[in-house]
Amino acid sequence: MSQLGRIADAVDAYNAHVTAEVARARTDTRFAAELRERWAQIHESIDWTVSPTGTPLPRLALPQTDDPGVIASYLLGQGLPGEFPYANAAYREMYLDRDSGAGEEPMRLFAGLGLAEDTNKRFHYLSSHQKSLRLSTAFDGPTLYGLDSDHPGVLGKVGEGGVAIDTVEDMARLFAGFDLTRKDASVSMTMNAPAPVILAMFIAAAKRRFGPGCLAQLRGTIQADMLKEVQAQNEVIFPIEASLRFLCDMIEWCVPNLPRWYPVSISGYHIAEAGATPVQQAAFTLANGFTYVELLKQRGADVNQFGPRLSFFLDCGLDVEYLVLGRVARRLWAIGMRDVFGASSKAQLLKLHTQTSGRSLIAAEFQNNLTRTAVELMLAYLNYTNSCHSNSADEPFTTPTEKYATLASHGQSIILEESGVFKHMMNMFGGAPGLLVLEQQVEKAILDVFREMDTLGGVLAAQEQRYQRSKIQEAGHAYEEQVYGGARPIIGLNRYKTDEPMPHVPLARTPPRRQRLQVERLRAFKRRHAKQAPAALQRLENVVRGGGNVFAELVSTVEVCSLGQITACLTGIVGKFRPMV
Amino acid sequence: MSARSHAPAPVRILTAVPLCDGHDSAVTTINLELASHGIEVIYLGYHQPVSAIVRAAVQEDVNVVGLSSYNGGHIVFFREVVAQLRQRGGGDIPVFGGGGGTITPADERVMKRQGTDRIFFAGTPLAEIMATIKRDYARPGRPNARFTGDRALARAITLAESNPSPLKPPASHLKRASRAFVLGVAGPGGAGKSTLIDELVSRFLRRCPGGRIAILANDPSHPDSGGAILGDRVSAIYAQDDRVFFRSLATRGSLTGLSAAAPAAIGILREAGEFDLVLVESVGVGQESDPFRTFGRGPPLVDATLFVLPPHYGGRIQLQKIALLAGADFVALNKCDHPMAHTARAEIQARLDQDGKGRRLYPTTAARHFDPGVDALFDALAQRGGLAPSTGGDKACWMEVTA
Hints:
The structure holds two protein chains of two kinds. By secondary structure, chain A is of the alpha/beta class. Chain A is built from 23 helices and eleven strands. In chain A, strands 3-4-5-6-7 form a five-stranded parallel beta sheet, covered by helices on one side. A four-stranded parallel beta sheet of chain A has the order 8-9-10-11. A two-stranded antiparallel ribbon of chain A has the order 1-2. In chain A, helix 1 runs antiparallel to helix 17 and helix 2 packs across helix 3. The longest helix of chain A is centred in the N-terminal third of the chain and has 24 residues. Chain A starts with a helix and ends in a 7-residue tail after the last helix. In chain B, helix 6 runs antiparallel to helix 9 and helix 7 crosses helix 13.
């Protein structure tokens, strides 16, 4: 059933094909002439620009060669930016300065604190620093676990570490004052187990505000990656089969109805943060992605319809493998999708969001975190990530305060806009010897993991045997031992300590009276809809039991029911997730 | 290392991650480290409410509770844990915390005033954490006449663990013994015993609205360190109920498949008179194992035995070699959604038929919610244990077997 072995074989076959073509380029004069001509055409198509200090530069850098073997190796093995197998970049231009100023910067800053209007205020503040409207939402613990703010024992957690969302009305407050139908607007929501409920609330709130016709315009991403939740992040509510069904229902509904929306963000970030090595992160994430493809295909969905709506999210830390992780991931995804699943070009493209590593940041001498994040940003851009979040230096001890959130966002602008590294020329480093060595080594290691999981029966079977969890925990333990033993230098922690006392940093916390306000609002909502809620939940239950598309029904259910009411209804029908150690 | 038998009883610690928090990478690292230092870790899991933490601390009679909190709300949460421990007879159990950098020194001052013992801040060397725990939290459990309810039961079991030699009299002589039906559950590692037991617990709670159930979960101690990670509570989602008494027992060098204290602990639970059903889970057993003395080597420890097999037991010949398959009152084939299950069913049933005792095989898929196979198994156990069909509102649902 698992396709991972076939995918690994397909990558090997593709690599063998490249090698054979390189050899043919060196022996077959006609083929060599074709390649040289194509190379000349590519060169001709490249625009030129001038640096601010007067140096003329091509907008795309290519290897300096007319050796047909090198040309073949480059074009087939790596691909031009925007061409199969996409090692260099998903698109041709990426971060280049545009004369029109119409481009979208990759910056996407994660924010969420307190009540909906508090986060709304932060969104307005952050977006005032951005050209396009890119909002990324962090939710508080109760929301992530599908609980209402009045659930016993959660009060202290309401609005902590993210925004509290209980109802469609909270959702409306969260995005008040933003025109979400703008072409350059994009909303991202870090939400998993209750993702179908939360996205349904988002849709319902948007319809209230912009009318039912707005669905075609809404653009954004909801994480909704349940496999990595089971493997690493632990925000799971329903049993795995039910979780996957709710997810697939949502994806299938979104493909025709929300054509600009990415209904899943297949995420390695939490796998890495939980301890995985960079290779494990990429291997588990890609394997999870291929598993979703298999599941959707089994349900009869068309890979060319849903394929372009899948997106990815990787962590970027300081280990050397991060120089190439995004590049290798794009290449493997493209080959697997094309050669194993028969996907057309749009469905072969891995669109990548990157976040700098939270685990790499520490509380001791925390201003060093600014440098750590800056280096990680460079690595992320070297991989030509499509969007990027940079962590705030104060994250080890608080939800980012305004000051450090601003510094984090300005860090991205300094690298992309102020410095000349990325804005004049594409492909500044692609094909560099170090990158090529790393790409080969990392790719090989990822394929080894694919084959190992294949022998276990694929991702789902391996997961049941807690393969991924064991590997992640083992790697996490090794990392901690390296830190404690000093083998992994952490400046200010196990090396060059200055014994600087912890500075006083104001903490962003939600005051108890705000938490109580959230509870009061929720209770008022429940009172107002006390008559309609039971019938709405009954209709939802009928759809779940009857095998219909649950997401289609949720869009109505959220009009009169809270998140917690819906979660309780669903667990009553499908049961609860039994955690693994 | 060889002096272990004379060493004091291991420190028992409960670790968990608070409600709405799934960050478990720090706690799993700490768990491994604690176990390698000879400590018995009862791990409860992530996303744990205060009530579950307190219930577990009381029932496990731990020396200390350690909570790893990452995503905020710790001041309220720790305060609530300390308060509920006091209310529920565990006020003497100290609580410490750790939590990346989200717990600040200023928070710690507030938390200490509210009863939290200490916070280990990010960057505290593991060796220092271990030394502190062994130094400050190693008080041996002594009899305490003021303990009542679950804590009193738990302490009695702790005392039996630290001094298991005087055997309790066989339970059948106890006056109220007939109320508790004691079922021994054994099977090879990986058969899904813990999950099956948890599903049986869910049936019990539904069918017996006034009843109480106890579980003794035996798990191996590490042969070198003497420590253990007792993780059965993580997946025991239905055990989070005051009607369930759940106790984890490390084997501490006993090679019988049970802790040496298990016979005494069973006696204590029978004597308590409040349990309708007691499930005793052995460690993963081999072909020769006989943890419940099914074959007459000493008085039987339990009233009946359930043997749980997975579909991948290795073929027909292997079935002839498993002692417990001959002796068990009930045999379940778990993981019936496995491709091998069809063949396994036929082979095991044939093996049971050889004995001519009319035993039937119970096919179950405990990992699937609401599995009808588990329902059938529960019905059979209930019948054997004397469970009256629930009429609703009936307080005790297990009736005396004999008139």
